[in-house]
Write a structure and sequence with these properties.
This protein folds into two domains: about 10-125, no CATH class; about 150-460 and about 465-530, Amidase signature (AS) enzymes (Alpha-Beta Complex), CATH 3.90.1300. About 20% of the residues lie in helices and about 20% in strands. It contains eleven helices and 21 strands. The protein has helices spanning about 55-70, 205-210, 220-225, 270-280, 295-300, 335-345, 375-390, 400-405, 415-430, 475-480, 520-530; strands at about 10-15, 20, 30, 40-45, 80-85, 100-105, 115-120, 120-130, 135-140, 150, 165-170, 185-190, 230-235, 285-290, 305-310, 330-335, 360-365, 395, 440-445, 485-495, 500-510. The strands form two sheets. Strands 10-9-13-12-14-16-15-20-21-19-17-18 form a twelve-stranded mixed sheet, sandwiched between helices. A hairpin with a 2-residue loop joins strand 7 (about 115-120) and strand 8.
Length: about 550
Amino acid sequence: MEASSQRVIDSVVTLNDIAYYIRGRIELTLSAELSKEWLPATVIDFSEEQLPLTAAGVEDKFNAFSASDDVFNSSFSGLVIIQTNAKADKFSVPVGIEAHIQETIWHDRIPEGPYFVKGSSVHQAWRLYPDYLNSFMAATVPNDTVPYKFRTLPAAGYSGLHQSVAVPSRLYSSPSEQKPLDGMRITVKDNIHLDGMVTTLGCRAFAQYYGVQNTSSDYLKGLIELGAVIVGKTKLSSFAGTEVPPKGPVDYFAPFNARGDGYQGPQGSSSGAGSATGGYDWIDASICTDTSGSCRGPAQINGVWALRTTWGAASLDGVVPSAQNFDTIGLMARAPETLQRIVDSSINNKRDDSAKNITEIIYPTDWLPTKDAAQMEMIESFVKALEKSLDLVRTEVSLSKEWDRGSQFTKDMFDEAESQIEIFRKWLDTHVMNLDHGGSNRIMVVDVGLSGPLYRDREPEPGNGPAGGSYNGNWFPTLLGLPQIVVPIGQKPYMSKITDRIEYSPIVAGIISARGSDSALIDIATNALSKSGWPTTVKTGSLMFDLGDNERHVAHEPES
């Protein structure tokens, strides 16, 4: 038996009404040929300490696989390949299961889990899922011959209605210190280059003119080295703008939002990232960009966690620029722990103990309270949860009044926009965020966008944008290069014109802190929710959380 990198033609098979993509790369070569047709099989490890091998032991393995993996199922249990470090004279196959044990491997090792065998070649099994929310521009699989290179999934939509996306078995991965993201299934916004794939930027003309890219972005290369699995490129508004249905996007149909009645807008520009993260439990996280809310807006309307990272904390080499002074990496996930794993391993900020040293919660009266009473009631509950968690009382601050009071600048200093921003940034660092050697002991709570319903077939009403124009809680961190976390906190009931029944739209809150406090923000938000007995992980589908009888309409968890 020997491992091999030989390539064969990719295949797609259906097994008990579930479709699988069979990866072309040969993982292992058996000592004998089994069949000219594809056979499902399971590779199982049994160490010498786990012997003797028993039927019950094999069944326990199958049960553990089924509980932790969405690719494995009982269809793979008919043929078993055992891997063991035991000596041959100590290993025996018990009566009753010998017909299922195809081969025992003593030396070569591949990860446990589901595989397909043809002839003597063993191949990985990737499950195909339908993209029924229309979140993806293209599904991707590794090239297997060139590092960091990908190709389009060679599989049509097996349902006949939607394209398919392939995901590998979770049993193939084992996160470690060297590969903390091993096996994490991520999507990539289609303004980030991936070697071997077309970057459309949401525009057919752009896609045709630039064609297939020949390099992957620096940030994606880093994620791949850390073990992340890129499964596809997600849709966006054209040129990473703010197009939303019904007027746009024009070139590529906008994704659907799984929340509420299923006909809420997806927001932009990272519409596919928000749609996929909020709608598909087979996706772990989405990588996108944020300029003026491109990540935060879709995260809000699709009801997921998100982080606008500190400006300059991650390389944007290989990302199509929108506004270079404001562009940064954005991250989405359904659980804060997922965000934390990505940030700790890929964002250039040393994690510190800022979360333990917060001395002030800034409550900006410039933007709070919001006009929506139901939204504001939930944000108020979240502020109280922060106060409880940090043992602090909020400080109400009017930034505009503070600025007027402390302004000592001449008119000449405001002649150029960039100089204005730099002046404001330095003032904020010193007088508001209390920046000290790369850390901050202050956080600011803000709202994140308008609450629903925001139907995809209805144009936004004139004058319904944020109060103050660009001076709002959304543009504030953009202009100043600050990180901001989007925290799912509640769900607001509304009578749907689509289903003619009560549905629920997501309500989120935002926290801003000083540059470099990305990890601390995740800790602060998570601790606040946990200490108040609020759930931290959101579900996929119409509801973020199980319904509860409180102002947030969320079932509580036991307090820690």
